[in-house]
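Review form for a predicted model. The reviewer records the input and the model, then writes brief findings.
Reviewer: anonymous (R2)
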Amino acid sequence: MVNEMSRTPVKIMSTCVVAPICHAQELLERFLKKASHILLFIEIYYPRCLHKIGADCFLYQYGKLKKVYGYHVTTLKLIRIISTNRAIRYLFHFVILFRLILKAGVKFQVFIGVNYPYPLLGLLLRKMHLVKKVVYYAWDIIPPPDQRSHILKRMLYKIMLLIDYLISKHADLVWFLSSELIGVKRKLGVPINNVPYIIVPIGVDTDRLVNIAYSSLEQQNRILIAYVGEISERTGFDVFARFLIRMAHDQTIKDNIEFLIIGQGPLFRKIRTLVVRLGLKDQVHMLGFIRDIDEIRNLLSTCSVGIALYKPTDMFSRYSDPGKVKLYIECGIPIIMSGRSPITKEIAKHGAGFIINLSEDELSRVIRYLIKNKTALTKLKRNVIKLAFRYDYRNILSRALIRSLNILFNNPYVSSTKKSR
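Model under review:
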């Protein structure tokens, strides 16, 4: 249930946020434009998404959008140069973000930088007295490169680890996506205890769940299975490719399920070619990247199940809070998930889906179970909706904001606690 405090959040005079385009970013923007007198929200995007690179800025005053501006590179040659080298890409973003923030002509009370290296920009602006306080919103970790990786890649990893160290040490407050992320950062030598921190997981918009229909699930001719995100080996698409080969020769699965795949990535063309070669165009619909998050929500709301396949060794999902899973929960659809993310325990505990080992055998087993037991989908869906209300984004962000203002400014709005854990 959404509490009253989350409907009327405490106000910040002025806030600047830098974040990559995603579901979690959209909810953060929606909340902060009501919680700030002035909000400059900067969305960063990458060429794998929109065939351009750069950032868009949205300047809000008292909850109303007053100005939109940005900087984009659309020349393919420049995009290729910037996107293929992470160091060049971060430097490019750093320079354009600095210019875009100055263009707003506002001195900010709070700067929130989502993930490295963007909070470093906040520290620079604080030094220039353009920002009072810097919040580092840590979403994931820097995965260590393989020992056989090129020396430049290993050097970049050490530089990024140093930047993470400096941001964590000199920020005024750190928001962590999960408690597991704190432990692994400690192991990497990041100075967690030098600054106060709080846990701020990704939330969901529970307003969308009010009119969810259950009756249609059992009457669907085919079970519609959704996927949203990057199409790569990291997200299990090498296993998914092998499953498709099996599906092409299994008439029961072929006749009873469809896949809706939203996203781009290194394996997109390979999977699309495989779908055509196997004659599965009627069963597997590859929509590519969709920018409009509401369009994605509407598509997911028509689906029966969502999949989130991660390798057990994947550090991003293991210590973080996968956004696609929260998006599935927000749309009221059960989840088939692999990996060791913290959210897997909650899904299993509340009966909101299936936790599997990453293999085509396990995926086939669960899908065959759903084909034979369509009535199970209704119960799973009810469990997902119950779970969703534990993660309402207004409750999460209201609590985080009140605690943060108390830590940063000793705000009298709440009882005083010097550090929050």
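Findings: Residues 75 and 245 are 38 Å apart (CA to CA).
Further findings: The mean pLDDT is 84.
Recommendation: see findings above.
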